Please model this.
Amino acid sequence: MIAKTPTPPYYAVIFTSIRTNVQEGYEVTADTMVEMAQQQDGFLGMESARDGIGITVSYWKDLESIRKWKANSDHLTAQKMGREKWYEGYTTRIALVEREYRFDR
Amino acid sequence: MIAKTPTPPYYAVIFTSIRTNVQEGYEVTADTMVEMAQQQDGFLGMESARDGIGITVSYWKDLESIRKWKANSDHLTAQKMGREKWYEGYTTRIALVEREYRFDR
Model:
C-alpha cells in the first residue's frame, strides 16, 4: 500500500538494508516493530519492499516524533539485535518531505 | 546495493508505485530510465525494490538537478507511458535529507 500522507511538510525516514541469512527472531521482531511504530505519536504511514535490498520508508509529523521512536526501549533492543544478527549493513536517512505528487488511475 | 551518498544535505526522490499487469515495454523503459538518470548532473545514487509495492529512491545534489531530470524529454515520454499503461498509482515525494546514519558489519 502507498501511504496516504498529509500535505507536506512532514518527515520521511528512509531505512535501506541488506540482510544476513539469520532468520531467527527476525520476522516476529520486524512485525512487532511495524505494529509499535504505527501506534507512536506523529506516525503518518509506512511503505516497505524487499528484493535483495530492503527499503522501508516511514513518515512522521516531525523530528521529535522520530527521536522518540528511535529512543523507544523495545525499538532500541530491536536495533541492537539488528546490528548483531540480522543486517549485513543498513543506512538510515532522515529527510524533510517538501513536495508530494500523486497519480491514481 | 545501498547507495553511497555524500554527507547531507542532499535530496531524495521517493517514488512509490503499484504496477498494472501490463508488461509491454516496461522493463526496457525502466532500465533505460535508470541508465539515463545515472548520467544526469547531480545524480548521487539510487536504491530500488519491488514486492507488491515498488519503492525507488534516487538521490540528487539539489532541486535543480531533480527539476532537469523531471523535464528530460525521454523521461517525460516514459512518465506519460507510466500513467497510461504501467501504473495503477504512484506517489513521488521530494525530500531534503538532513541526516544519515550508516551501519556496516
Chain A has a mean pLDDT of 97. The interface with chain B takes residues 1-3, 5, 8, 12, 14, 16-18, 20, 47-55, 57, 83, 87-105 of chain A (CB under 8 Å). The radius of gyration of chain A is 14 Å. The longest helix of chain A spans residues 73-86.
